[in-house]
Design brief:
Elements: E1 2-5, E2 11-14, E3 20-24, H1 27-32, E4 45-53, E5 57-61, E6 65-70, H2 72-75, H3 78-91, E7 93-99, H4 108-113, E8 118-124, H5 127-130
Parallel strand pairs: 1-6, 3-7, 4-8
Antiparallel strand pairs: 2-3, 4-5, 5-6, 7-8
Length: 131
């Protein structure tokens, strides 16, 4: 397995009905995730992938690779990161959206309907499993 350290500026942690992790410029991850097609708002499950949400690092682990993303250490937004991690735990995972690059402004219709995004729902990994 190959894991890369993804710079914090290449990730966004978004709270919504389901927590979103948007990553950009992560070719190993982007190439491995399925095309993101969400008919009628239903996001497919990414089998074989796991998401570990932590206050200092977020881990996205896939069948043949993944990435580590610094979280709190880079932003200092304790309340926002705690809320996002709690949402991942309560939802049993989060929606991962991989793009060739992080856009300046998010156009969700373009992201979910433009054909460039890859990803889907990734099940959360319990911290006990990670040890």
């Amino acid at each position: 397995m190959t894991a890369m350290l993804l710079p914090r500026e290449n990730a966004r942690f978004v709270l919504g009905p389901l927590p979103l992790l948007v990553v950009g410029a992560a070719p190993g991850v982007h190439g491995e995730l399925p095309a993101l097609v969400a008919p009628e708002g239903r996001v497919p499950v990414c089998d074989g992938w796991q998401l570990m949400a932590g206050l200092t690092v977020c881990v996205l682990d896939g069948p043949s690779g993944g990435c580590l993303i610094p979280t709190l250490a880079e932003t200092g937004d304790v309340d926002g990161m705690v809320a996002w991690c709690d949402a991942v735990a309560q939802s049993g995972g989060g929606v991962v959206v991989s793009l060739p690059e992080i856009p300046e402004d998010f156009d969700w219709d373009e992201i979910f309907g433009g054909g460039r995004a890859r990803g889907g729902f990734v099940r959360g990994m319990e911290l006990e499993e990670a040890e």
